[in-house]
Each structure stands twice: as C-alpha cells, then as structure tokens.
Write a structure and sequence with these properties.
alpha+beta, Cytochrome p450, 3-stranded antiparallel beta sheet, 16 helices
Length: 443
Amino acid sequence: MRVAPDAWGSAGFTGAAAREPEASCPFAPSGDADVAGADVIGGGGTGAGAAGAGATGGCTPAGLRPAASRATVLPRLEGPLPPSLRSPDIARDPYPLYRTLRTSHPFHYDEAFGAWLISRHEDVRAALGDPRLIAPVQGSAPLEDRTHAAHRALLSPALRGRALAALRAGVERAAFVLARRLADRQEADLVTEFCHWLPAVAAVSALGLPHEDTARVREWCRDGLTHLGGGHGDLDVFLRPHVARRRARPGADLLSVLCTARADGRPLPDETVVGMAGTLLGAGGEATHLALASFLANLLDHPTQLRLVRERPALIPGAWAESLRRDPAVHIVMRRALVPVVTAAGTIPAGADVACLIGSAGRDPVRFAAPDHYEVLRPAPGRLAFGTGRHRCLGIQLARLTAECALHAVLEALPRLRWTPAGRPESEGLTTRGPKTLPVLLG
C-alpha cells in the first residue's frame, strides 16, 4: 500500500471539517476514485473490512459486511512502510510509531491489524464525530445513536444538583477510606492498593449497591465489562433484584434515578436500566483505574506541579484532563464505516474498520506545544480520551469525579507521597495502557 503525505492538509480529511472544525459531518461525500497509476486495495478479504483484527475484537453488525466490490485507490509513495501496531515492540513504546504515522503516513492501512489507522489530532477528532463511522458493537449490535443520546439525556439530570452532591460525597468517602488505610505505612503500591479499587468502589457507591459486592464488580470489570456497559453474563442476574427493590422503594442513588425515570411517559424497561447501570459500572473498569494510575504517576514525576496542585486544588480538573491527553488509558478507539468515506488520500470502504489512535492524537505537535511534556497549566488539553460526540462515554463524569476525589484524598492522607528510589515503572500495553505498579514511599 502507498500513501501520499503531501496530499494532506493540516486537518487531514477533506470536506467541511477541513475548513470548519465544528462541522457535524467532517468527511467529504463518498464517491468513486480513479487515480492513474495507483495501487488498488480491495475492500474484502484481508483488506480494511476484515473484522476481528481490531482492538475491540471483530464482530460485524447485522447487515453490515465489507464492501468487496468497492476498491480504495491510493497514490504511490516510495520508501518503507511503518511497522504494524501488532509488531512485538510497539506495546512497549508506541510513540516512535505514532510520530512516523503522523508525519508520513497519516492515513495508513495496517494489514496485520486489519484496520485503517488515523493518527493526527484533527483527523481523530473528526473521525470520532462523523456519523458514518460507528462504534462497532455493543454486545451483538451497534450502539444506536438515538439510544446513546437517550441514555445520556436520562443520566445527565442525575449528575447535577443534589444528586451530584450526594454522588460526590459517596465517592469522596470511598477515596478517603482507601487512602487513610495506607497512612501509617512506609511504602505501598498505589495501583494494587488504591487505583484498582477506587473506580469500582465509586461506581458501586453511586448506584447504591451493597459494598460487599465491590470485589465481584471489580472482577467483572477485569473480565470484560466495558464503559459501554456490555460484556458480562452475570450482570443481569446480579442487578435485577436491586432494580425490583428500587422500583418499589426508590432512594437517592443513581439506580433509583434510572428506575424512576420515564421515557415517552412510561418507565424504562428493566433491560434498559440494567444496561445503563452496566455503563456506570464499566466506568469502574480497567480504563478508569489505568487513567487514575497515570494521573498519579504524572504528578509524582513532577513534584513542583504536585505541590502546585496541592496549594491550588482548583487546578485538579485541568491536571486530570492533561494526564488524559498525554497518557490516555485507551490508545485505540475502533470505528466502522457504514458507507464509503472519502479522504484526500483514498476511500475507507463500507464495512471497513478504522483505528482512531487516541494515544497519537494527544501528542500531535500541530495541536499541542511540547506534547510529550506534562503541564497542569496547559490551557486546552483536549477531550478525546473518553470519546467525543455521540459516542462520548456515559461514565466520563463519574470517572472525572473519581479522579478528582482520589487526588484530594491522597494529598490529604499521604502528604509525603513520593516515588521509591526505583522511580516510575514503565507503562505497558497498547489498546489499554498505563503503569501496572506505582511503588511509592509514604513516610
């Protein structure tokens, strides 16, 4: 495959988004391409439509198949192609590959990975907002835009006012309990003893579920419960009795809010309540605890900035957003093309998988000055890490609240927190990435 980097402007994709960043449909209308002397990449077989090779696993939505009859036409480019995302060393350090992709191959088909790679910030932002590129699956079918919007409309009132105050109190209580358990220790691993537990504890607390079930929820999150609420067969069985009790005697927790919410004048079906509760529980999963671990690691790496945040707590939300930019927990977000989508370099076939490289977009020097540096005072760190547009993660506010409460608790309960002499361990992983341990001194 050949890709011509000089065919790309600063925004990458053609159409309205190249001129107006907030356009709702950022790619050019699909159409046939015919470039003389170009390599032709088919849409079927091992091409971009090959489901199952992407970061989220391959599950083709009903009625959607790769468009084998429509070819993608790409101009020639001499020189070596970049390594695949599946290359052995990439998970150890993906950033050199990201730089190569942004600079020379911003629209690139990774045959071993089975997807088109998009690596520049503007292109990733545009792709995440394009209605023709959908989240591949939730369970066995795509997450419908109307369903996602309806869920957000129902949850949003529960995450402000008195309900938000009650939610914050519960998360703060959980964070301080976990942090204070470490206060008399000389050293600890903040991942295994704090970050692994707090997001699950926060989600359980928010929904008003029994705290003795936290360990079980945490294991479900590790076994595949995602921020989209899908993935664990036991979740429905676990939640149904709680849903029935909240319908009979609602309280102030988020599960009660869902059980008493009405759509078109009728209560939400149990399946919808269980699915939305699963979304919030998924916010207690691996992505959130890895993001929290990276957040603490970035501040430990910069004692001056840690001291600044301690002195000015109002900086904590920006410090969290900056950590998500520099070190997102999810580096790859998959999308699938509903129709052929034209770019300046070629056409994404209908049914093709597209890998939006969040980890690359957050370090794009065209968008961010000194992008590899962590800076809590960065004026606009961006908001791609938990999705954007219609697929923006429904648990993002709970994740943010968890991170803010976590840092408040750590700063108060562990005032002498610092790295052990061994220093920061390397982050690991690619699809999800973060430090697996945080060895710190406390006394």
